[in-house]
Every structure is written in structure tokens, then in C-alpha cells.
Amino acid sequence: MGQRERADGMSHQTWRFLGRPLGVFPPSIALFLSPLIFSGIAAVMHDFQEGGLSKLEEMVCDAGIPLIDLAPFFQAEAPEVLELRRQRIGEIGNACEEWGFFQVQNHGLDSKLITDSLKVSSEFFDLPLEEKRKLSLPAGVSPVPIGFCCDSGLDDKVENKEHMFFFAEDGKKATKNGGSYAQYNVWPDTPASYKPIIKDRLLKETQTTAIFLLSLISQSLGLSKDFLYEHYEDKLNALIMLHYPPSHSTDEIGLSKHQDGNILSVVAQSEVEGLQILKDDKWITIQPRPNCLVVNVGDIVQVWSNDRYKSVLHRVINNKAGTRYSFSFSCVPGVTTQVCPLPQFTAGVNEPPKYREFRYGEYMMFRFENKKVGGPNSEEITIKYYAI
Ligand code: OGA
Ligand code: NI
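A: This is the predicted complex of the input protein with N-oxalylglycine.
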């Protein structure tokens, strides 16, 4: 059996830009304010000082997209720290229900590593196109498209972006076939610091951060810390380094609107804005904030939680003012993982499942095959396909 077949027939395209039906709720300012009112002025002041940004700022930033301070998770376990952790987990739960997206600060990922990674990535993308193209694997060599890509898109519209794709080595579980998919990664020799920064550090350290964030999301659903992480087999976790050139054309799109078909995405963006989410029929820009990460739940968390958490439609527009760089770490199940709503959110609460069970590889293949320039595919395939 060839590599391609082993990976459920995926071919060389942007298989990971996967989606789901949109469903977001208006934010409740009253709900947001009530804990402040009832916990008293002292606690409010404590929160203001401890977090760096005030609650009031949090409410208006990015039209309300929550900014959550994770500092308490890196502090010693005093009773008041445990209480703050509990509050932050609650904030994450609210953010996942209302927005599907949030930003985090004090997340534990080294801020210098973020800056250095975006910088060395920009140096790589500055190389001539023919150099970068050498870092694309020929079809059939790897189970999924690895390395350089500059021709993703829908219909006949190529997205105005480039990316480099890498698999992450998962410390805990190997792939079904024994090895890690990271063995297929192709690494540039130029710039010389690319490998030391991206391969030796970012790939590993963003995975640690993503697993940590997944543990908070797991707890916010009332599940144990490790539940969601343990719940997916043969992990296909991956890192993408992205480059969006500047553009004045309103016809162009950096990354067409989509919902992530994964479990979780953790994104760092350079200071040039461009990432937008759709809320109440409006595109809202997620403001780049120094040292912050953007976190969003993907389709699989939406299915697991039986629609309690939302995998929200988003896109990237090219910015006329400058070049934008970002990276995105994705928690992705292996192709053999069976996905269905968890009993905790169905039978356990007397709710019928909203999705039928499916094999992750099948969904990945549908989406992946669809996202090819030239096909009759003006929309991405979403998780609606499995809706009951
Ligand atoms: C993605 C994505 C956002 C960005 O990779 O799915 O939405 O800012 N990326 O590049
Ligand atoms: Ni996305």
C-alpha cells in the first residue's frame, strides 16, 4: 500500500483548512460584569494589577474577543491562585461558547521565541520562489502535503499567501505505523537559524503550549485535564508558518473563509493585522497584541461537545499596509480516529447527538480534495456534512 493510500487518499493540497457551520451568540455584557460587581472592589483591583490589562479593556478590545490571562497557571498553588485558575477556566468556557476564539497572554510560550520565529520565517519567505519550491515534496512521497505551498485556493482563485507545513513529533504516542509523521518534514538550510529556531524549538514548544491550552479547554467542559488530549489517536499535530504579501486589491484573499477542521489552533501573528472572524454577519479583526496568542476551537471540539463550543468561520485578508506573518499550531487527530459527540454532552444530559460518528480521515479527505484551485468548489466542506 502506498503512502498516499495509507493516509486515506489525501493529495498535495491544504488539507488542514477544514470547517463547520457557523453558530455564534451575541456576547452578554451583563454576564461579563456580574462577577466584577459581586466580588467587590478589592478583588477587582487585584485582577487589574495581576493581569496587566483591565477587565474593562478586555470587554472592548477586538469588539469583545476575550483576552485571557493565564499567569495563575504558572504561579504556586495558593488558595487564591487556585480560585483565579478556576475563574480563567470559566472565562475560556464562555469564550469558546460565545466566540469560538480568544487571545491569551502569559501563556508560557517564550515571547522571544515567537518574535524570532516570525522573523526567521520572514527571512525564509524572502528567498526566491524557485528556492522555496525545492522544499515541496513530490506527490506520493509523504502522506500529506509537507513543506512549501503557494497554490492553495478555491474555485479558480489562488490564495495570496505562502506557507511551510511541518508535522510535530508527539512525545506521548507514535503514529499507527510506529514512526512519527515528522520524519517526512523538509527543512530549509537557509536561513541557517531556521532549523535551530523552528525545528528544534518552536515545533516542540508550541505543541507543549497547545496541549496545555487543550487541558484548560477540557477542564472548561467539566472533563479531566487530559481527557481531550487522550481522546484522539495517532496524532497528526502540525505547525504551519504563513506569509501574506501586501495587497491593494479587494478581489484578493490571503486565506479564504473557513472553519478549522481540527481540534484546536494556536496562532501567533506579526503586528500587521489581517485575521478576521465572522460574528453576527460582520468580519471582526483580531488585533495583533504583543506576546499574545490567538486560540480557537475547531470542528472536532464542536462535535465532541455536541455544539456547545463553536468552530467559527474566519479568514485572512491581505493588508495593503504591509506583509503579514503568522504561525499556527494545530492539534489534529490521526486518520483512524473515530469522532462523535461525547456521552457527557448527549446521553448524560438527555440531548440527542447532533452529529453521526465518522472517521477523521474521511472528513479530512473530503475537505482536502475540495480545496483545489479549478474545481467547482466555491465553499469549503464543513462539519455540517455529518449533522443529524
Ligand atoms: C489557519 C488560519 C490564521 C492566520 O491556518 O487555519 O486560520 O493568521 N490561520 O494565519
Ligand atoms: Ni484557520
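The first strand starts at residue 67 and ends at 69. The CA atoms of residues 60 and 66 lie 9 Å apart.
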